[in-house]
Amino acid sequence: MRRRSPEVSARRRSAVVRFRLHPAQAVVVGFGAAIAAGTVLLMLPIAKAGPGGASFVEALFTATSAVCVTGLVVVDTPTYWSGFGQAVILLLIQLGGLGIMIFASLIGLLLARKLSVRSRLNAATEAKALGLEDVRGVVRGIVLISVIIEAAVFVPLFLRFVFQYGYSPGDAAWHSVFHAVSSFNNAGFSLYGDSLMRFVADPFICLPIAIAIILGGLGFPVIMQLRREFRHPLHWAMNTKLVLAATAALLVAGTVYITVIEWSNPATLGRLDPAVRVMAGFFQSVQTRTAGFNSVDIGALHDETWLGMDVLMFIGGGPAGTAGGIKVTTFAVLFFIMLTELRGEGAVNIFGKRLSRAVHRQAITVVLIAVAAVVAGTGAIMLLTGENLDRALFETVSAFGTVGLSTGITTDLSDPARVVLVLMMFLGRLGPLTLGSAIALRERRILYEYPKERPAIG
To answer: Which tens digit of pLDDT belongs to each residue from 95-116?
Structure first.
């Protein structure tokens, strides 16, 4: 038997290593594969309620919106898709919310009861786990949290649908599980053509869904730490404190802003009782955490309301969760950097801890890439459709922030404009920094430094 020389074996091992995916690349490829599979399934005739099958762009847009837990639609979900198609959408939402690498790691744990180092690296990248040794616990924790919260939302919805609206147990169960999964995963897909507008005055429908959206938007690291150390806030990580503080502040600010501006608008809040107006304003503020349900007509909102919602959607929710946007932690870090500069201090200190300078660069990079993506996407939508800036910007930010709210123009967009939004959803779900690191493959170590110099700023 002929033996291979050590040089040949070494070259082959080197080639295998070169073709292994960087963890960030694996996340991108995993989401891309899920979208491709979802597109194929939704193009099947069995997935469509009427004759024939969905077009490629319709299936691609819907699959991307589901996997990226966005909620933007180009066709009416309850009437266009069959039961099979709706089930595919629900599965894609759950996969996208859990994370493709997390789901793959769960399958590995169930089948082999262990994870390879490569699987742990991939899962850690997506879940923002701090170390490889805790990845298995993180995966189990994420799945358990998802199931518990979705089940907790399912129960009140099921009871309400059965006893208040007269649904059969089967229909109530399907509507409840679909909206429970869609809300916790911040997807915004609904089995009603008007989203949740028919339930605008029903707190037993709106509030459980809003709570699920808030919890999903906090991010799994925050939920898991709260579960372990809820009574010991001094032990909370900076990430947890930032997410909780920023989320509370933005929810309150959004509720006040939307409610005040729309208070007298007869097409939105003006026709409702005062208490219902406040609840509807709160509900819409929650949706800007990247959920996408609406209990009032988004297309009838004032332009000023759209602008405020653009800002909230762009910020998004917490990292390593089901929310999109640049993340509240990125926004908070930039706020504290600005505050530090205004005070003339040398280091950025948050909650008694000094912020790493590497985080400064990451936050600035994420925001600049996100702004560039939104500007480019908005310009492309305006060129392709002739829509005005207000509506084009709203749709683009909603897609990039994986929100799913729409002024009503998405269903009328041309196929090229829909593809632009597909790219926005994909980029927004994975994050500019994840895509950038996937392309970069590895960090470049520079073994020298240039002399310092300060340009004029401002």
So the answer is: 888 875 565 555 554 544 555 5
